[in-house]
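F.,

This is the one I mentioned.
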């Protein structure tokens, strides 16, 4: 897709001012063209108490027989930033592929620490199971998806049944985009702020819990990611495979950390087939 010069300048300015590491994508989301075949069907739905426990729902514009697969998407932001409104481009892109998409906010550091954001993620999934049928979704066919810190939340919910309990049986797959899954000990400010107070660091790591019985996974990485190193996905994949869980790891050349999520947006899909790979996986896992 070729962008007009004025749009390219505006988009570049937005990226320059808002995309430091995993910062919110609100300005980018405002500027970027979105998929017309997907639409937001609900906004500000409360899944718990407080402004940070709300979610938005996206769905295809076309009607369908039966209930559609559900994708619950958790955005990144180092567990200390981000808003669901900045990811409408993700919601509409996935909805245009035929899915009902749930994008929750969750509480952030420093107001909270681990495990509060994982608990919020679990509460959002349980809400989806209870209510997504009202929006055309199938509560028994859910794929958990996330980018960066959001991929961590999705992975913990997928591999550790402390959070979802019996509701984890509805999770058909995990999609992780540039996720941190094996990062203890906590040697950077971001991880120390979110996890440093927990007395048993291993308990906070998805690799600790991954194994037999977990849902199949698609783990996507960029080979130029210097924020969350691809070795995290390699480590999680190894643990899942040891337990006999189907897992696929795909590395995209010349793609960095933020580029992974931007590749879902219409103007940047030529950089890497992230949306196509995610769509294929979700369809396969929710047949």
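My design for it:
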């Amino acid at each position: 897709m070729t962008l007009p010069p004025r749009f390219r300048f505006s988009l570049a300015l937005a990226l320059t001012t808002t995309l430091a590491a995993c910062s919110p994508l609100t300005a980018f989301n405002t500027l970027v063209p979105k998929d017309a075949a997907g639409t937001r069907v609900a906004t500000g739905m409360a899944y718990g108490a407080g402004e940070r426990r709300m979610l938005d729902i996206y769905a295809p514009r076309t009607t369908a027989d039966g209930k559609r697969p559900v994708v619950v998407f958790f955005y990144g932001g180092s567990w200390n930033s981000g808003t669901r409104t900045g990811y409408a481009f993700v919601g509409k892109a996935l909805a245009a592929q035929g899915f009902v998409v749930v994008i929750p906010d969750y509480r952030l550091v420093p107001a909270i620490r681990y495990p509060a954001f994982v608990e919020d993620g679990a509460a959002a999934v349980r809400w989806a199971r209870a209510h997504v049928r009202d929006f055309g979704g199938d509560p028994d066919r859910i794929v958990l998806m996330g980018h960066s810190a959001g991929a961590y939340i999705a992975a913990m919910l997928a591999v550790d049944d402390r959070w979802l309990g019996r509701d984890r049986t509805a999770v058909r797959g995990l999609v992780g985009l540039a996720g941190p899954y094996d990062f203890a000990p906590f040697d950077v400010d971001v991880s120390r702020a979110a996890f440093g107070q927990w007395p048993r660091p291993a308990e906070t790591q998805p690799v600790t819990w991954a194994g037999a019985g977990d849902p199949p996974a698609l783990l996507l990485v960029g080979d130029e990611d210097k924020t969350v190193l691809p070795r995290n996905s390699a480590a999680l994949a190894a643990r899942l495979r040891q337990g006999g869980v189907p897992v696929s790891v795909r590395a995209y050349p010349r793609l960095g950390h933020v580029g992974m999520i931007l590749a879902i947006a219409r103007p940047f899909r030529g950089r890497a087939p992230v949306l196509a790979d995610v769509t294929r996986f979700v369809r396969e896992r929710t047949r």
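The first helix runs from residue 5 to 18.

Talk soon.
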